[in-house]
Specification:
This protein is of the alpha+beta class. The protein has two helices and four strands; from the N terminus they run βαβαββ. 13% of the residues are buried. The model has no long low-confidence stretch (mean pLDDT 86). This is TusA-related sulfurtransferase.
Length: 79
């Protein structure tokens, strides 16, 4: 299934098992070269996704250092 517009997923305050499953299901639907944005506020979420999806690149938008309690936006791109 090809995604025509960039998908945006707001995962703030939803970092649980089902939230991770939702994010993973959307990432699996990406084709090579496609990307999506995820808004999160749990610092552990990004490293967890990196472990589960090594076939993707993850980049903070804009690039910055994560601080406890901050919301952050990152782009997931299927390689």
């Amino acid at each position: 299934m090809r995604m025509t517009a960039m998908t945006k997923l707001d995962m703030r305050n939803t970092m649980d098992f089902f939230g991770m499953l939702t994010a993973c299901a959307l990432i699996k639907r990406l084709e090579a070269g496609e990307s999506m944005l995820i808004l999160a506020n749990d610092r552990a979420f990004l490293p967890d996704l990196r472990r589960v999806h090594p076939e993707c690149s993850f980049q903070l938008v804009p690039p910055h250092e994560l601080k406890e309690g901050d919301d952050y936006l990152f782009q997931v791109r299927k390689i």
